[in-house]
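Support request, please re-run this one:
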Amino acid sequence: MELQGTVAIVTGAARGIGRATAVALAQAGARGVAIVDLKEPELAETAELVRGAGAEALPLVADVGSLGALRAMIAEVDATFGRIDVLHNNAGLGEGPPDWPDIAPERTAAIVDINLRGVVLGTQLALPVMKRGGGGAIVHTASGAAYTPVPPQAVYAGTKAGIVQFTKSCIPLHESHGVRVNCVCPGLVETDMVHESGDGDVADWLRPMYDSVELLRPEDIADAVLALVRDDTRVGEALSVDNPG
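Re-run finished. Output below.
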């Protein structure tokens, strides 16, 4: 897919991978980038970066775990730009602290709603608009945790494994809607979420890995997302982005 003149949506765009992807899409020639998050001040910062990179930014404060919010998000992007070419379902939430199974059930529900429900419903709601415009590309942010048991983050790992299987099950959408669905599975990325995994710092269970690998940058994952969007041969792929070394 040629990105020049396209319209994209990036969820979880206030910081980290989402912010990096939104800016990368703008730098690659996107006409408009809708950025979605609940963190309004950081979202405003991302909007300025997107505009500085040459695209029109549409900041939307919304909870992607809510069906109503997702419907409103898709409707507003469609009304503003008249099309959707790219959707990056990136918003995510982790357990700790405390870790599984000591987290509040309300937190568990939020993880499932944002990490998996939001991905599935966001995809479903975007499809008619994307099909009307001739198709497009959807990329979800999964995780290396989809393939490795992570007992302290059991719910997070489970939702990410669900994203991988959902991605592969969406392969027929390429033929029926002209939409390619893929996902990225990052290793350990230097983001705020990592530093929020423990009590104000990196969680004790994560510290040995954190100290022993070279962390990926959000921009590394953004590059992988754009590679999946650009390559029209890639469908139903779960692309691992591993830590160097």
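The mean pLDDT is 93. Strands lie at 7-11, 32-37, 56-61, 86-89, 136-141, 179-186, 238-241.
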